[in-house]
Specification:
4-stranded antiparallel beta sheet; Jelly Rolls; 2 domains; alpha+beta; 9 helices; about 190 residues; single chain
Length: about 190
């Protein structure tokens, strides 16, 4: 299962085969059934996951106890509660498998050993952190500046497979609209 992770890392960094091979013992496989949690709100996040196969949904609860989906992580993407992972504090979000999912995970101690062992692993960590920040900024900008129809069209353009794999209520939550509004937008298109 680590082959897909290796390919992904090679496409985004200059990690050598030797550096990757040395790191393999630090990674573990984890399988989640549909509906199972990688992380529940209130728990401390101890791992970063690479989605080898499947789909995760990250969400939190609004003050009105409404689920707010803010991220979908499909194949070849990473998932974690970054704040909880770094600070080792309880997470305010949950990460749940939307379908049967295969992950490759690494815990904080092992990741720190990789950072200490190689500049290339530090660079990979930096790239991951930057990507997380950019995704969050993009999402916040989309919610604050785009119409509901524009948000849906962006999702169709940027992640067309998500529409086919995710329940409408989660897509509506991600877009910040009701399922009724989402149904109306889909009919218009």
């Amino acid at each position: 299962m680590v082959d897909q992770l290796k390919i992904h890392l090679r496409n985004t960094s200059n990690i050598s085969d030797i550096e990757f091979e040395k790191a393999i013992p630090y990674f573990a496989e984890k399988k989640l059934q549909k509906g199972e949690f990688f992380l529940k709100e209130g728990s401390v996040c101890r791992e970063i996951a690479f989605v080898n196969q499947g789909l995760l949904r990250s969400y939190f609860f609004s003050p009105d106890a409404e689920e707010i989906t803010f991220c979908f992580e499909a194949e070849n993407s990473f998932s974690t509660s970054y704040k909880s992972f770094i600070l080792q504090c309880p997470s305010n979000l949950s990460i749940q498998a939307i379908e049967e999912t295969q992950l490759i995970v690494i815990n904080q101690q092992h990741l720190q050993k990789l950072y200490d062992s190689s500049f290339e692993w530090l660079k990979i960590g930096k790239l991951f952190a930057e990507k997380e920040y950019i995704c969050l900024e993009h999402y916040a900008s989309m919610l604050n500046s785009d119409s509901a129809k524009e948000r849906y069209l962006k999702l169709l353009h940027e992640n067309p497979t998500i529409i086919k794999r995710v329940q409408l209520k989660y897509i509506a939550s991600f877009l910040g609209v009701t399922t009724r509004t989402l149904s109306r937008i889909r009919k218009e298109l």
